[in-house]
Amino acid sequence: MNAPGWFEETLHDGMKLALRAETVLYDSQTDYQRIVIFENAQFGRVLMLDNVVQTTEGDEFIYHEMLTHLPILAHGAVRRVLIVGGGDGGMLEETLKHASVERVTMVEIDPGVIELSKTYLPGICGQAFDDPRLDLVIADGKDFVTRCQDRFDLVIVDSTDPIGPGEVLFTQAFYEACKGCLAPGGLLVTQNGVPFLQGDELAGTLRCLRPLFRDAGCYLATVPTYVGGPMAFGWASDDTALRETPIEVLRARYRAAGIETRYYTPEVHRAAFALPGYVARLIEEA
Ligand code: AG3
After folding, report:
1. Between the CA of residue 267 and those of 105, 191, 223, 254, 271, what are the distances in Å?
2. Of ligand 1's atoms, which has the minimum distance to the CA of residue 197?
């Protein structure tokens, strides 16, 4: 199936990404999915789930910073965060860099991803799983949000694409339940694929979010191993001012947070909401 030494991503019909493994650290099937972790010359360690690249040591900072610092600094008073998915711990690690965050609940369906990430991907999760502010729940994300009585300032959906265990995390019922978990003025951000190749993934999410929130849209960032152009992140809140948080306010909050970032800057934050015509049209027509 795979050429010797190469792992091929099976995500798009007429195009594929191939990464060469210097060393395969792990390759096995859990109850939920195939997990592969290998070392690549350009990207360092790579995590694939069901033959789709999830994250790499080399470029994880872009994705994880943009789904944590951007919403946290836009909001300005995030104390409680819910991460749905995110078993590799990269999202958790970035979130916990904010001293103002008091509690992070993370709901991951596959304990295998967490254990293997702790063992093989400390470059991504660091010591985040040992942080006393973490409340780790092994459960189906949709069941959890449906039953959850807690309220969060920020919900981050760090899912796979809508194939396999991640599929329910793209449904109307799931987004509705996420809304129910938000504190007043709360914010929901989601992983929504690369719109040039996966326009339906973004359009489908927007169709669900629009009737639920006063403000629903997306912002963008380019992540090299999510090939095909910029990736879209869903953005939904009843507070329409959050996407307009002024640059001076972002700069002040960023300085006050005292965090170091490699991709996120207040300028990139504001620019991420500028949508090329094909993406703007996609969401208008959704
Ligand atoms: N999950 C998002 C992977 C999306 C891949 N999609 C794509 N290449 N179009 C990442 C999990 C990292 N914590």
Report:
1. 29, 21, 18, 11, 6
2. 9
Show pLDDT as tens, one digit a residue, over the chain (286 residues).
455 699 999 999 999 999 999 999 999 999 999 999 999 999 999 999 999 999 999 999 999 999 999 999 999 999 999 999 999 999 999 999 999 999 999 999 999 999 999 999 999 999 999 999 999 999 999 999 999 999 999 999 999 999 988 999 999 999 999 999 999 999 999 999 999 999 999 999 999 999 999 999 999 999 999 999 999 999 999 999 999 999 999 999 999 999 999 999 999 999 999 999 999 999 999 8
What is the number of the ligand 1 atom nearest to the C-alpha of 194?
9
| Ligand 1 closest atom vs CA 87 | 13
Helix and strand numbers, DSSP H then E, in the chain: 11, 13
Distance CA 114, CA 120 (A): 10
158 a catalytic residue: yes
Q: Identify the structural domains of the chain with CATH numbers, from first to last.
A: 6-56 (2.30.140.10), 60-285 (3.40.50.150)
Centre of ligand 1 to C-alpha 48, Å, is 9
Q: How far is the CA of 137 from the centre of ligand 1 (A)?
A: 21
**Sign for the pseudo-dihedral over CA of 193, 194, 197, 202:** positive
Q: Of 50, 110, 158, 161, which residue is the catalytic one?
A: 158
248 Cα to the center of ligand 1, angstroms = 31
DSSP state, residue 159: -
